[in-house]
From TrEMBL:
<keyword id="KW-0458">Lysosome</keyword>
<dbReference type="GO" id="GO:0061462">
    <property type="term" value="P:protein localization to lysosome"/>
</dbReference>
<dbReference type="InterPro" id="IPR050854">
    <property type="entry name" value="LMBD1_LysCbl_Transport"/>
</dbReference>
<protein>
    <recommendedName>
        <fullName>Lysosomal cobalamin transport escort protein LMBD1</fullName>
    </recommendedName>
</protein>
<feature type="transmembrane region" description="Helical">
    <location>
        <begin position="83"/>
        <end position="107"/>
    </location>
</feature>
<feature type="transmembrane region" description="Helical">
    <location>
        <begin position="472"/>
        <end position="496"/>
    </location>
</feature>
<feature type="transmembrane region" description="Helical">
    <location>
        <begin position="393"/>
        <end position="413"/>
    </location>
</feature>
<feature type="coiled-coil region">
    <location>
        <begin position="246"/>
        <end position="273"/>
    </location>
</feature>
<keyword id="KW-0175">Coiled coil</keyword>
<keyword id="KW-0812">Transmembrane</keyword>
<dbReference type="GO" id="GO:0005765">
    <property type="term" value="C:lysosomal membrane"/>
</dbReference>
<feature type="transmembrane region" description="Helical">
    <location>
        <begin position="351"/>
        <end position="381"/>
    </location>
</feature>
<keyword id="KW-0846">Cobalamin</keyword>
<dbReference type="GO" id="GO:0031419">
    <property type="term" value="F:cobalamin binding"/>
</dbReference>
<feature type="transmembrane region" description="Helical">
    <location>
        <begin position="28"/>
        <end position="48"/>
    </location>
</feature>
<keyword id="KW-0472">Membrane</keyword>
<keyword id="KW-0813">Transport</keyword>
Length: 527
């Protein structure tokens, strides 16, 4: 089963990258890197449901451990999952700080200087060294940052340094890796606020509204061509008697000629789309797209309402900023917290729901990046366009997805903290009941929750995901404020998407700065 899932992920990544990459600028190294990074992002996002399933599978519904799940087996399973996180998170660090930057700068140098491969490698390594330095600094800070500050006022500096090394040795590097991953998760939070929040509103509404008709757009485009040609004739008629055109007329003539080239490219694209089998297929499944759009908007609203109630609960009942807004238990329930315990009764509906939410989070992120493009503050760096995306843009897209995946676990934890921490585990507790005149002791089982009592902690196994989420309170505080920003951006994006009309059937595929050679790429894609 694992091999089949892995093969399916690789096939999807290959199809997705090949669908959007430019045919003229495709590069083997950048293509392999993009496919690998995208596959790592999807596999890492799938680890959370697996982690929850494993801790839940070790216990029966009555709260007792299964026969095979003794202390040693439980520890082995926990260690296996933990090593899985170690491996995938280390690969993410490798991709974000070394491999993707190196391939990006290597390709940039290849465009500037064709020929000297050694010089390109040296220059790419020189720029990549800055990323490696940042990674090393984060690992060092995470390795020696004190989680428990000694309370003794008369403790010497040597005792404090000794404590740091003891903590580093006892955590086996978990703290260093957790700090580095948490730092990247904050960046992933900003990417999720920018791209995922918008994608969650834009993707469903685009599916519901659909696109304009290719035939109708082609008719409008033909009228535009005729209008521009008439305008050009009027300007050129001014110089028939040999008089030179004024500077204003020359500027207007140049703009009109560029506009005419763009309209003619649009004409060729629209003609290709109108005749393609893909357009006819999309028209045939139009009702299915509307159903999917309605389903996605329901999931988005469920996600947003649950996130709002969870954040409101933290604002009202947590210990405040210094604790990272962490709460023990749930005071304000939300739709997702109510739905998961109900679905736990029928295996495996709860795992299907949590997997659906994780995958939805990933695919809406991809939709948001595709619609918005790659931005650096107010500067648009790259566009993500079907069949015409540059290799650098694909590398940026995969890096952003890697960062967003890191933030996904905390987003799911914010929605259902008890479920992410313990899954569907239950524990036994003895209660005394009075029947007639006799006192009787009986065992009842309850769902595991965030507790303070040490004797219950032995009966409930915490997911390995939780260990990476709450090592540092200041990151939890940043995530809390990021959730409010996420909700605000989603609502703004929802309003903007509702007000916008239907998208063009060739939205973003024809721009004024495109060359005529780019028409061949799209025609290859459609035919």
């Amino acid at each position: 089963l694992f091999c089949c899932v892995f093969q399916a992920i690789l096939i999807f990544c290959w199809v997705y990258v090949r669908k959007y990459q430019s045919r003229r600028e495709s590069e083997v190294i950048s293509t392999i890197t993009a496919i690998f990074a995208l596959a790592v992002a999807l596999i890492t996002s799938a680890l959370l449901p697996v982690d929850i399933f494993l801790v839940s599978y070790m216990k029966n519904q009555n709260g007792t451990f299964k026969i095979w799940a003794d202390a040693n087996v439980s520890r082995q399973i926990e260690d296996t999952v933990l090593y899985g996180y170690y491996t995938l998170y280390s690969i993410i660090l490798f991709c974000v700080f070394l491999w993707i930057p190196f391939v990006y700068f290597y390709y940039e140098e290849k465009e500037d200087d064709d020929g000297n491969t050694c010089l390109q490698v040296k220059t790419a390594l020189k720029y990549t060294l800055g990323f490696i330095t940042v990674c090393a600094v984060l690992l060092l800070i995470g390795a020696f940052v004190p989680l428990d500050i000694p309370n003794k006022k008369n403790s010497t500096e040597w005792e404090k340094v000794k404590l740091l090394f003891e903590e580093f040795g006892s955590s086996h590097g978990l703290t260093a890796l957790s700090f580095s991953i948490s730092s990247l998760t904050v960046i992933g939070m900003l990417a999720a606020i920018t791209y995922t929040a918008y994608g969650m509103s834009a993707l469903p509404l685009n599916l519901i509204k659909g696109t304009t008709s290719a035939a109708y757009e082609r008719l409008e485009n033909t009228e535009g061509i005729e209008e521009v040609e008439q305008h050009l004739l009027r300007i050129k008629s001014k110089c028939r008697d040999g008089r030179p055109l004024s500077s204003r007329d020359r500027r207007t003539l140049k703009q009109l000629e560029e506009r005419l080239r763009t309209l003619r490219r649009r004409e060729r694209h629209l003609e290709s789309i109108e005749k393609s089998w893909w357009t006819k297929f999309c028209e045939a499944i139009r009702p299915l797209k509307i159903v999917w759009g309605v389903f996605f908007i329901i999931v988005a609203l469920l996600f947003t309402v649950s996130l709002f109630l969870s954040n409101l609960d933290k604002a009202l009942h947590s210990a405040g900023f210094d604790s990272g807004f962490i709460i023990l238990g749930t005071n304000l329930t939300n739709p997702l917290n109510m739905l998961l315990p109900v679905l736990q009764r029928v295996f495996p509906l709860d795992y299907i729901l949590i997997t659906t939410i994780v995958m939805y989070f990933i695919f809406t992120s991809m939709a948001g990046i595709r619609n918005m493009g790659i931005w650096f503050f107010w500067i648009r760096l790259y566009k993500i366009r079907r069949g015409k995306t540059r290799p650098q843009a694909l590398l940026f897209l995969c890096m952003i997805l890697l960062l967003i995946v890191l933030h996904t676990s905390y987003m799911i934890y914010s929605l259902a903290p008890q479920y992410v921490m313990y899954g569907s585990q239950k524990y036994l507790v003895q209660v005394r009941s009075i029947v007639a005149t006799y006192n009787q002791l009986g065992d009842i089982f309850r769902s595991c929750y965030i507790v303070l009592f040490p004797f219950i902690l032995d009966q409930c196994i915490v997911t390995r995901t939780y260990l990476f989420l709450h090592k540092f309170w200041f990151f939890s505080a940043a995530y809390y404020f990021g959730n409010w920003a996420f909700i605000a951006v989603f609502l703004i994006g929802l309003i903007v998407s509702c007000c916008k009309g239907k998208k063009s059937v060739i939205e973003g595929e024809v721009d004024d700065d495109d060359s005529d050679m780019s028409d061949d790429e799209l025609s290859v894609y459609y035919h």
